[in-house]
Amino acid sequence: MTNRDRLALAVESGSLVLPDGDLVVLRAEPGLFLDLVPDAICEQAFRPTFDTLARANRRVEARLPDGTRAAAVVVNLSRSRAENLGAIARGLGMLADGGRLVIAGSKADGVDSLTRQVGNALPADGSFVKSHGRVVWLDRPALLPDAVAEWSAAAQPRPNDDGFLTAPGMFSPEHADPGSRRLAAELPGRLSGRVADLGAGWGWLAAQALSSNPGVTELDLYEADALALDAARANVRDPRARFHWSDATSLAAGTTRYDAVIANPPFHHGRAAEPDIGAAFIAAAARILKPSGTLHLVANRQLPYEAPLAAAFRQVEKIGESGIYKVIRADRPASPRSASGRSARP
Hints:
2 domains; seven-stranded mixed beta sheet; 12 helices; single chain
C-alpha cells in the first residue's frame, strides 16, 4: 500500500481530521489522498511526478518558497532519515501554533523508528496503522524543542568529502559514487563538441568531464531532481555547462543534437532493481545523438543492457571493467526503423 492510499484511508475512516485552511503536502504524489483534498498545495522536486501532478491541474511547485504558511502539513517520507527529519522541521515551520503536522510512511522507509525519534521530542496526538505503514499526526506546540532546529541544520546542503555541495536525500551525497568514478577514469580526451550528461545528479561527473576534455564546447546537464540540479549549479561553474530540470528518459529527438552523451543511469526506484530505467536512458541517448555520436555509459555488471544497446546503436564495445562495474561505449545510433528491426531479431 502506498502513502497516498494509507493517508486516504486515515481520512476516510475519521481517524485523521484535517483542519480548515491551507494544506501543504511535501513529496506529494498523485492518487487517492489528493483526490480528497484537491486544493492542496503540493511540493514535488522529482520531475516525472511533478509533471503528473501538473497535468492533473494540481497546485504544485518544485520547492515551496520560504514563508509558506499552512493550517496542516503532510510529510511523505523518503528513504533518507536526515532528509525526512529536515522535511518535518520545514513542515513545523510552516505551521502556526496548533497547526497539524502529518507524517506518512512505510516500514521499509523506517517510519516506525523515525516516528519514535520524533515522538521523543514531540509526542504524537494520533496514529493510523495499515498494511506495513503508519500515519502519525501531532499539533504544533507554541515552543518547539531544540531537536527541531538540529533536524533542520542536518538537512541543509554542505560540502561533501569531494568538496561538492550536496544534501541528504540526493544520490550518494557523501562522495562521488564508484560507478561515476569508474566512468570518469575513461573519459579524458574522449569527448568534444556538444555533450549531454543524462541523470547528472549534483554534478560531479559533469565537472570531471569538463576538466578533462578541453574540446567540449557545451555540456548540458539533465537531472530529474530539482534539488540535486540546484546543487549542480553551485558545483559546476564552468561557463560551458547548462542545466535542465528534466526527465532524461523523456528527451525527444529535436533541434539539439549531441556529439556525445555520458550517463550513470539509476537502476532502481525505491528498493527493487529496475533495469528498464537504464534501458530508457540508452534509448534517450540514441534519440538525441548525432548520427556519428557516441554514448559512454557505466553500469553494474549484472544489469542486462546488452539488448537495448544493440537495438539502439550500430557498434557497442566494453572499454573498461572493474569490480562490479562495466563501462560501455556505443557508437552511431540506429535510426528508429533500423532500431526496430534490430530489436526484433532473435
